[in-house]
Amino acid sequence: MAFTKRILLATTVAIAFAGYANAADLTVGFSQIGSESGWRAAETSVSKIEAEKRGINLKIADAQQKQENQIKAIRGFVAQGVDAIFIAPVVATGWDTVLTEAKEAKIPVILLDRTIETASDDLYLTAVTSDTVHEGKVAGEWLVKTVAGKDCKVVELQGTVGSSPAINRKKGFEEGIASASNIKITRSQTGDFTRSKGKEVMEGFLKAENGGKDICALYAHNDDMAVGAIQAIKEAGLKPGKDILVVSVDAVPDIFKAMSEGEANATVELTPNMAGPAFDALKAFKDDGKAPPKWIQTESKLYTQADDPKKVYEEKKGLGY
Ligand code: AHR
C-alpha cells in the first residue's frame, strides 16, 4: 500500500474510533473460540493475567467453536458499550456485518491469533497473530532437511475447516516441501485442532496406509492433534518419532514431553500471549489517537530434539497449559 494511502487509512481509522473512555478502567469483551486445545486454554488464561496486570476489566465469552455464538457475543458486547472487542475468529469468513455494527457503535475490534477475509480491513483496528503460512513452511523445511532425499509419504492433520491457521499452515507446508519431489502428502483430513479427533483421524490413516508402515511422517496443524495421533501410532504397534516422524505447531508442554520421550520430533512455537500486545496497542491508540500497524506479528520459533525438550518441558509445564 502506498505511504499516503496508509496515512489516510490510519487517519480514517483514528477518526472512526475516536472518543472512547480513558485508558484506565477499560472494559474489553473477548469473544474466544472455546477450549479445543491446550494452546487455546493457555491463551484464555494468559489473557486474564495480562488484563489483570493492566487493571483492565476483561469479559470473556466462550463460543464453543461456533461462529454464530461469536456473533451473538459480539452483539452483546456492542449492546453493553464495551471499550473494545477482541475476537479470535473461529473461521475466516462471514464477519463483515457484525464488524460493521461494532464500527457504527465506535467500538474498536482487535483480532487475536487468527485472521479474517473482509471487504474492508478498516473494520478492525489491528490483528495480533503469528505468520501462520511461515509456521507451515518452517515445518515443511524441517522435514525436507530431516529426510534428506529419502522417499517420504506424509499424512496431514488439518485444523478447523475454514480457519485461517488451517488454510495457511497447509499452504506454508506445501511451499516448504515444494522443492523436494521425494516428499508427498498422501492423506490430509481435518482433526479440528482437537486431541480426540487427531487420534480418530490418525487411526483411519494408519489403517489405510498398510497399518502405518507406508507412512514416513505426520504433519499436524497443532500439537494437540499430534499428541492424539501419537497415541494412535503407539496403539498400532509403531514407534512415533522413529517409525513415523511427527512435526506440529504450538509448542505446548505436552509436545515437549513427547519430544523428550522420543515420540515427537519438532514443533513450531506459537505464543499464547496475544492479548498483551493487543492491550498495549489499544492503550497506545487511545493515548495518542494513532492507529497501530494493521498486523502485529508474534514470533514463530522451531524447536527440535536439539533444543533439550526435557528442559523446555520442565520450564513450561507450570505455566498452566
Ligand atoms: O489459532 C491458533 C490455533 O488455534 C492453535 O494453533 C490451535 O491449537 C488452536 O486451536
Major sheet: 6 strands, parallel
Number of helices: 11
Q: How many individual β-strands? A: 12
Q: What global shape is seen?
A: elongated
Please state roughly what percent of the residues sit in beta strands, choosing from under 5%, 5-15%, 15-25%, 25-35%, 35-45% or over 45%.
Answer: 15-25%
Bound small molecules, deduplicated: alpha-L-arabinofuranose
Poorly predicted parts: 1-23
Q: Provide the residue-averaged pLDDT.
A: 92
Question: What's the alpha carbon Rg, rounded to whole Å?
Answer: 21 Å
- Strand order in the largest sheet: 2-1-3-4-5-11
- Please trace the helix and strand order, writing H or E for each element: HEHEHEHEEHEHEHEHEHEHEEH
Helix content: 40-55%
Structural class: alpha/beta
In whole angstroms, how far apart are the ends? 39 Å
